Amino acid sequence: MSAPIIRRAVQLLPSCASTGIGSMPHTQVEMGLQAALALDIPFLPQLPLRHPSEFMIPSAIEGLPGLSFDEDGICTVDLAQWEAGRQAFEKRLDEALASGQLDAFEPTPEGCRAWRPFLWEVENRKLALTKAQIAGPFTVLSVARTREGTPTLEVPGLDKALYRLVMARSLAMVKALRRTGTTPLFFLDEPGLYAFQRTQTRHLLALQELKLLVLALQREGALVGIHCCGNTDWGALLDVQPDVLSLDVRLSLDAMLEETDALARFLASGSTLSLGIVPTDLTSTYDVGELSDSVEASLKAALPKNRSFTQVLAHMLLTPACGLAMRSVQDAERILGELRTAQRRLHETLDTERGPEFYVI
Q1: CATH number for the domain that contains residue 335
Q2: How many other C-beta atoms are found inside a 10 Å radius of the C-beta of residue 354?
């Protein structure tokens, strides 16, 4: 079997490393940071329970003229206010993207209270690899609506501005992380892709825009992931070829593995998977050991013939299935504990399958 082609940046990922999706249930920044920094790849915790401005959509597009949101983070745009502020906003956005001077588009304390403390921790701990995330453009444009109920995806001019705002904020965050000396693992959170349809021309364009954003972030020095915790057109998403594709194992792993040709292209490009192996739905009943065994069985049965289970597992990430903001702190602690259990199980499998000869120098 030929050696796998692995992107040089993906080689930075430890085997079965644990990280988080993003949101946490804590109301105190210090406690949220403490939990997020304890994982193998520390991540930026978003803490929306006390401040709805930290829900994924308001946080991603804060600063947009005409934007408002409710206590659940549901965003609406007043088109009259948008048009009144549009010219100045777009001028500021154009100048920032053209010059690369994007500091003004970093998250504010209202959009993410942990952002500045997280940067401080990353720099002072000299962390080599850290994760941050933002709502991706397809989800933003599908979920944020005008006051009349029209998805912003369908509003010419506003759709372009929102996409470029997400790009500016993403690039600003990656630049800030790189200034600390870390390598950013930057995720675009795209649960809205459950609604993606190849028959919709605007959806196809939005997927191309997502791919362009992935490339822009990679050129800025980030490892780029896409997270989708709902089912989607996995073939289309695999062909975007981010460095990491993140999914909910129980909901989507088998469906994704059925896209054999797209999966083969994805793995051949050097990309890897991030498996949301521990359910975050509290109505679920499961055994962590059985979940780990199921992952092993599914991957072994469906991986392309030129990719072994150990090759894929060697750079795969493990996370909870989704964000934890709507769980209790106690539930979040239990889920993260179960994540460590699954990690140990898969590490044992990896060591067994590699065999002692793997470690002979």
Answers
A1: 3.20.20.210
A2: 14
Q: Report the alpha-carbon distance of residue 113 to residue 118 in Å, rounded.
A: 9
Task: Determine which helix (DSSP H) or strand (DSSP E) holds 187, and give its type and residue range.
Answer: strand 183-189
> Residue 231 belongs to what domain range?
10-52+113-140+173-359
| Domain presence at residue 84 | no
Contact 76, 145 (CB under 8 A): yes
Q: What is the pLDDT of residues 241-288, one digit of tens each?
A: 999 999 999 999 999 999 999 999 999 999 999 999 999 988 888 899
Domain count, the chain: 1
| Residue 171: Cβ within 10 Å count | 23
96: which strand partners?
none
The whole-model pTM stands at 0.93
Q: Can you say how many angstroms the Cα of residue 90 is from the centroid of all Cα atoms in its chain? A: 26
Helix (H, G, I), strand (E, B) or coil at 71: coil
Q: Is residue 220 situated within a structural domain? A: yes
Exposure of 287 in the CB half-sphere (CA atoms within 13 A)? 4
* Residue 161: inside a domain: no
